[in-house]
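A reminder before we start the practical. When you read a complex entry, don't treat the lines as separate problems. The point of joint prediction is that each chain is placed relative to the others, so the output describes one connected object in space. Small molecules and nucleic acid strands, if listed, are placed in the same frame. In the example below there are two entries. Take a minute to note the order of the lines before looking further.
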Amino acid sequence: MRLRYSDVTPEQFYVSRRTFMAGAAALAVVGCDAGTDATAAVPAGAPLKATPNPAYKVADAPTKLEAATTYNNFYEFGTDKEDPSRLGGTLKPRPWRVQVDGLCAKPRTFDIDEILKVAPLEERIYALRCVEAWSMIIPWIGYSLSALLKQVEPRPGAKFVEFTTLKDPEQFPAQKPSFLGFGSLDWPYTEGLRLDEAMHPLTLLTVGMYGQVLPNQNGAPVRIVIPWKYGFKSAKSIVRIRLTDTEPKTAWNKAAPQEYGFYSNVNPTVDHPRWSQATERRIGEFRRRQTLMFNGYADQVASLYTGLDLKKNY
Amino acid sequence: MSARSRVALKIAVWVVALAPLAGLLYRYWTDDLTANPIEYVTRELGDTALRLLLASLALTPLRILFGLGGLVTLRRLLGLLAFFYVCLHFAVWIVLDHFFDWHTMADDIVKRPWITVGVSALVLLVPLAATSTTGMIKRLGGVAWRRLHRLVYVAAVLGVLHYIWLAKKVLVQPWVYATVLAVLLGIRGWDATRKVLKRRRPVLARTAP
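Here is the predicted structure of the whole assembly.
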């Protein structure tokens, strides 16, 4: 049986979301300078066609669309979970280009429309585990990042991949200088993977979710999703993918190195310094669940880390 | 202050202090507690508890700085309301967050400094709430009672520390609370020093050559 989103998301949520967006648009208009067309920037949730890939699914039902689009971290918009959906209207996901360069034979800048055509779009249902011990099940749309990386032909010396999020305080209001730097990371947000992690078929270059174009608040127009790592590893609104021979500096590691390591694999046996990672709260559920090793993807990715001390390399 | 304005002030405090709880109940009723209701409720209750605790500590500085002595009559009410929210905050942690998983909670209290200090703050507030009645003040005697109730300073510092340690370092709110508390305690310290110096001055004047 294939679940449709209307099965898991009661209609009133779609409706209330629409009302909410309309309200947000109205507010945006009031709060904007004359002449700024704020309504055009509000994501319309345009449908996006993709073929479900039965190899990637989760037994649990997907999280409600309402929750997945109104509760997440995206510090470029603010530190509250509601900030991304409330303030996401300032991001302009088109036109958009992604520079893919570094240690590769054919560096290239892709237009977002080219990115959509590099490989057939698949729908994959992944578990998402936030480092803050909450989780969701999300049907993403995209294709394996490896398909894009193969286009630029990585050189043998390339060992790592660095992802860079757009830096533009006009589109990401929280990137503006703040009081004593509070609420702020070292912009632009950067993340990174080892090349073998980046080439793993699970690593998804993502352009949509829930049958729709990726909403602004979830990282439009293109992001990475790495389901066996904590959510912050999956960089959003990417403008650059760079192949390199040195381990990239990553945003949260720079902000709090003892709390957020380069690997950040989901691991119930390695606690965050301030809380246990043994359990998680699935959004929409009451009782905590046990967190699974590599977020349930151990059979597919554990071999990447053979011989690596996962306590040291948290 | 007239009895009537005192009653009006107290009613105002009740209304303002219970508004966050009413807000939570309304949001529960309208299914508007965010996608992660337990976290949201825990945070709101903790936030309100800290605000009320700081408000109860603001009354003496207001008297020192502006001579608003009448406001001190609100101190017990604000303190008890803060304690009420601390208890709700703690109850939500036990019942909704961990659902009576005593083992995990005991582990957290021992292993996580921010939980250790949070629980300590609650424990320190219990004797203060228990001895808040007029009868208890009489029974303990003013001096002993005042000495006991100085624990509120420790509880407030632990409460703010609890917030600082649980939040990500980039968040500003915990530091706002820390600053407010530092100012409130600073005013008390300044006032106490001033009084001590004043008492000494005549002695110094006499011994001066």
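Discuss with your neighbour: Chain A touches chain B at residues 64, 66-68, 70-71, 75, 79, 81-82, 134, 179-185, 255-256, 274-276, 279, 281, 283-284, 286-288 (CB under 8 Å). What might explain this?
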